[in-house]
Amino acid sequence: MVAAEQSMTGNEIRARSRAAEFTQQTSGLASGYVQCNIVILPARDAAHFESFCKLNPKPCPLLAVSERPGDASLPKLGADIDIRTDVPQYRIWHDGMLTEQRHDIVDLWQDDWVAFALGCSFSFEEALIAAGIEIRNISEGVNVPMYRTNIDCKSAGPFGGKMVVSMRPMPAADAIEAIQICSRYPSVHGAPIHLGDPRTIGIHDLKHPDFGDPVTVQDDDVPLFWACGVTPQVALESARLPIAVTHEPGHMLVTDLKNSELAEKP
């Protein structure tokens, strides 16, 4: 990761994504700017998905929704956002199956589609780094490891399934401070939902994440697990919608909002 990429603004990353010049994961990039998970689906399913988010606010903290079906903008997050082109990588789902990955969805876009933007843990990573806490996926230059768990989400209509978590290992003293810091960011997953033995939440091998990349776990580390915005992709598997679109895990929509705007005062 080069310094120029780290210092890019949300607008710059979106412009490069729109031109297919930027297709990589966004962890550690665009310092200060809120990043979002994305779900796009037909309007007939939008109300149920919105209910799913409200019932499961830890993995699905809702930041913005299309103002009307077919509207590709998200003005709450940035004046020039085009959700059809501004994500570095998209996933296309048919009947609950991942069928394609692509750089834009312009030719797929339908006039009844609704886009949802959900808070992302990359926002609180910045606050942890500012406190002197190492974020292992950033220091090792990889995407954060993410795992399917045995934790049930609350269902809404066709949407349900198990929660996905992201994992960051750190020494115990840092873990305590990390919990305190992240509690101030409920709109981007908030405090971890679990720490310690991963088997308790159905994870049997930290070296083999379901999404993202493995990171080094030192002998004196405590693994911390945060509810993750990839959870809706698991919900889409169970919903089996004829078509839906999400971001590629780790390849987020970078907005014009600042992370500092999301922090609650201690």
Polypeptide structure, described:
A hairpin with a 2-residue loop joins strand 3 and strand 4. The protein has helices at residues 3-6, 10-18, 43-55, 122-130, 136-139, 172-182, 231-239, 259-262; strands at 33-42, 62-65, 90-94, 97-102, 113-119, 146-152, 162-171, 194-195, 221-227, 244-247, 253-258. The longest helix is centred in the N-terminal third of the chain and has 13 residues, at 43-55. It folds into 2 domains: 3-121 and 240-260, 3-Layer(aba) Sandwich (PSTPO5379-like); 131-227, PSTPO5379-like domain (PSTPO5379-like fold, 2-Layer Sandwich), CATH 3.30.2040. The strands form 2 sheets. Strands 1, 2, 3, 4, 5, 10 and 11 form a 7-stranded antiparallel sheet that branches. Strands 6-7-9-8 form a 4-stranded antiparallel sheet. It is built from 8 helices and 11 strands. With 266 residues, the chain is of the alpha+beta class. 24% of the residues lie in helices and 26% in strands.
In total, how many beta strands? 11
Q: Identify the CATH homologous superfamily of the largest domain.
A: PSTPO5379-like
Give the class from helix and strand content and strand pairing: alpha+beta
Radius of gyration: 17 Å
Query: Tell me, what is the CATH class of the largest domain?
Result: Alpha Beta
Counting DSSP H or I runs of 4 or more residues, the number of helices is 8
Shape: globular
Detail the poorly predicted runs: none
Mean pLDDT across all amino acids: 94
Q: Quickly give the CATH architecture of the largest domain.
A: 3-Layer(aba) Sandwich
The total tally of domains equals 2
Q: What is the N-to-C succession of helices and strands?
A: HHEHEEEEHHEEHEEHEEH
